[in-house]
């Protein structure tokens, strides 16, 4: 059952002693109201990292320095607001981790609240709730829900296992897998448990370190140790629909138009929704980073080492692009462009042939979050918005 706590109003938090810890937006301009959303890790509940459009040849519009922050996480964007989890340890802050809400137009702070766990990736935002998963301790996790307008803590749910995945959702149900091989399905509204089920076969355990992908009434999960492989689970009941053994899965599965894309170390694999493996492509490299792929209606985009690969939906190499730095972050599809992070820049490639469309200089070095008229990136203590 979820653990309920007293709601904390923003005014009460401010009175508790965070004066002097406010953010500092800089920049000479502001964006129009943000068009579009990035409400969950991976941009969509399918983990596709593909949105319908983005700005053309954008320039930096604003940067907000988060005071006393030493690590700004990947944001989520809903209703024109930017929600950023952060490590905010300082002599003045009572809580080490915090969640910041910023205006998407100019980066000004709307509110900040304490997080009683070390956050895992982007928040998930749906049905008026901001959902953040985190680690209480190495082998103990937590899921916390805040109200979207003001950041009041609504409920929390403790998990007696390691949790490193960010949450995802389907309507008013939030899903969170853990390292014991259990998937937790909760009501977004009040945190009540819809179901909680350990996914195992023949007594062999699984671990789920990454987010689930949601599509067509199923969750798709990747196990990285124990009995490794990809598993399809019914979203309503938690019953296993099928499971396929593979080497360890190193990123969240992606589901797009009947194709399930799974990354197993250097090999990218594709399955159909019945669990039949369609193809496997080995993209050899020595880089320890294995960023998640992006998938659209015609290609799969994978960054390995200094190369970004575009594969067709039947697993053929279509084009490649050589970046000026090794990949630490996944590509993002924004309309007709594929966005890749380079050294102090974001580069847009034509998704049909990989030719460069534009390059935008930026101090942001994190994952590229895209909405219709803006790109958002974080650095160690700052959030930067670029717009056309």
TrEMBL record:
Phylogenetic classification of the source organism: Archaea, Methanobacteriati, Methanobacteriota, Stenosarchaea group, Halobacteria
Coiled-coil boundaries: none
Species of the source: Halovenus salina
Annotated SUPFAM superfamilies: Quinoprotein alcohol dehydrogenase-like
UniProt xrefs under Pfam families: PQQ_2, SSL_N
Pyrrolo-quinoline quinone repeat domain ranges (all copies): 37-113, 265-367
The protein, known as: PQQ-binding-like beta-propeller repeat protein
SMART domains named in the record: PQQ
């Amino acid at each position: 059952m979820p653990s309920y706590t007293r709601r904390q109003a923003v005014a009460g938090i401010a009175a508790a002693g965070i004066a002097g810890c406010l953010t500092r937006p800089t920049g000479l301009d502001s964006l129009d109201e943000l068009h579009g959303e990035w409400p969950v890790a991976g941009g969509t509940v399918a983990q596709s990292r593909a949105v319908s459009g983005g700005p053309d040849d954008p320039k930096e519009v604003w940067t907000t320095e988060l005071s006393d922050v030493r690590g700004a996480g990947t944001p989520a964007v809903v209703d024109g607001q930017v929600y950023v989890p952060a490590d905010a340890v300082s002599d003045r802050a009572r809580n080490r981790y915090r969640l910041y809400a910023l205006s998407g137009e100019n980066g000004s702070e709307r509110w900040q609240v304490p997080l009683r766990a070390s956050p895992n990736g982007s928040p998930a935002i749906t049905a008026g709730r901001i959902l953040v998963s985190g680690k209480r301790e190495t082998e103990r996790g937590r899921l916390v829900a805040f109200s979207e307008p003001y950041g009041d803590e609504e409920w929390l749910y403790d998990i007696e296992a390691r949790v490193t995945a960010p949450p995802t959702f389907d309507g008013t149900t939030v899903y969170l897998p853990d390292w014991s091989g259990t998937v937790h399905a909760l009501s977004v509204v009040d945190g009540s448990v819809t179901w909680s089920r350990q996914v195992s076969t023949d007594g062999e355990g699984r671990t789920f370190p990454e987010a689930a992908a949601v599509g067509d009434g199923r969750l798709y999960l990747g196990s990285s140790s124990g009995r490794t492989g990809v598993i399809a689970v019914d979203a309503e009941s938690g019953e296993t629909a099928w499971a396929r053994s593979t080497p360890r899965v190193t990123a969240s599965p992606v589901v797009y138009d009947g194709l399930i894309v799974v990354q197993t170390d250097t090999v990218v694999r594709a399955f159909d929704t019945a669990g039949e493996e369609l193809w496997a492509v080995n993209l050899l490299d020595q880089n320890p980073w294995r960023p998640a792929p992006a998938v659209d209606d015609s290609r799969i985009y994978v960054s390995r080492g200094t190369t970004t690969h575009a594969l067709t939906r039947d697993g053929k190499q279509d084009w490649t692009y050589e970046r000026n730095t090794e990949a630490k972050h996944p590509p993002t599809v924004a309309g007709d462009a594929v966005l890749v992070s380079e050294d102090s820049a974001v580069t847009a490639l034509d998704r049909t042939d990989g030719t460069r469309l534009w390059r935008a200089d930026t101090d942001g070095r994190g994952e590229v979050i895209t909405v219709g008229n803006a790109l958002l990136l974080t650095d160690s203590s700052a959030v930067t918005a670029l717009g056309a």
